[in-house]
Amino acid sequence: MVAFRARSEETQWPILFIDACLFGLYCFIAMRSKRYWPLALAGFGLLIVATHLAHALDAGISGWAYWTAARIWNYLCLIMIGYGAMTAPRRYADIEALEAEIDVPGATRR
Fold first, then answer.
1. Which of 2-16, 38-52, 87-101 has the highest mean predicted lDDT (pLDDT)?
2. How confident is the model at residue 15 (pLDDT cuts 50, 70, 90)?
3. CB atoms within 10 A of CB 21
4. First CA to last CA across the chain, in angstroms?
5. What is the pLDDT of residues 78-90, one digit of tens each?
6. Are 41 and 26 in contact, with CB atoms under 8 Å apart?
7. Cα angle at 49 between 45 and 51, to 5 degrees?
8. Tens digits of per-residue pLDDT, 22-77?
9. Can you tell me the distance from the alpha carbon of 80 to that of 74, in angstroms, rounded to the nearest whole number?
10. 41 with 79: CB under 8 angstroms?
């Protein structure tokens, strides 16, 4: 609430800075991950930053369209983070099951 100005039709520069930093973090995570959901997360982060920049460059974009687009992209980011959190336990359970099936040298099969 420190950076956000409610009921403002202008470009929110502090929010743009915060969203750009988050986009950089999302890109870092996406480049280091073996999963696909961080790529979608980074894509939605890019759309958030692009929405801010489009509003900054063209004052003709209404405040309603600006905030609606930003909220849609933010909700999609939250959905991607939720998807990643929801599928993480299953992924690690699958890895543990595969590790348990690896043959130990000298072991016999039943």
1. 38-52
2. confident
3. 12
4. 63
5. 999 999 999 877 6
6. yes
7. 115
8. 999 999 999 998 889 999 999 999 999 999 899 889 878 887 888 889 899 999 99
9. 10
10. no
User: What's at 37, amino acid-wise?
Assistant: W
Q: Three-state SS string across the chain, please?
A: CCCCCCCCCCCCHHHHHHHHHHHHHHHHHHHHCCCCHHHHHHHHHHHHHHHHHHHHHCCCCCHHHHHHHHHHHHHHHHHHHHHHHHHHHHHHHHHHHHHHHCCCCCCCCC
CB 11 within 8 A of CB 59: no
- Tokens of residue 70, six digits: 């930003």
Per-residue pLDDT at 109: 52
